[in-house]
Hints:
The structure is a single chain. It is built from 3 helices and 10 strands, in the order βαββαββββαβββ. It has helices at 20-25, 46-56, 114-117; strands at residues 6-12, 28-34, 40-45, 62-66, 69-80, 87-94, 101-110, 129-134, 142-146, 169-170. β2 and β3 form a beta hairpin.
Amino acid sequence: MSDERLTITAEPRTVVGKKVKQLRRTGMIPAVIYGQKESVNIQLENLSLRRILRQAGSTNLVDISLGKGKRTVLVREIQSHITRGDLIHVDFIEVDMKVLITAEADLVAVGESKPASEGLGVATLALRSVEIESLPDALVSEIEVDFTQIETPDDVIYVRDLVTPEGVTIL
Length: 171
């Protein structure tokens, strides 16, 4: 996760139901913040929201400036038009920075195993992701699997052998 938190400005939304189509035509996207306090309907500018979503993914924290306050959230769900790909709606979940949360982290292979370099076979990942638990500030989107630990074709890397960043626990 990057050290600098992503920030976006939102406005309260009074338009609900089928009337949000008009809101989208003006370049605003409806969204909802769920979580610690009551749910809040908001609207965000389309282009800046797309930029934030591209950078944030589902594991980077985003600060939403709403009026005079600020809410720290994670992206929970993104709804897009099925054929055009236009954003329809976004759900955010507010996080408490002192409470552990669970998330999925992708496993990424790094390095080359000794058998692969000698032409004896190819190392592959049997798991693609693991469930992790951490404070929101320590949340990561991927964990590296070091293939250089494999010395023979019979060697196996177990989940218990994975090196996680500080504050992250694999469940």
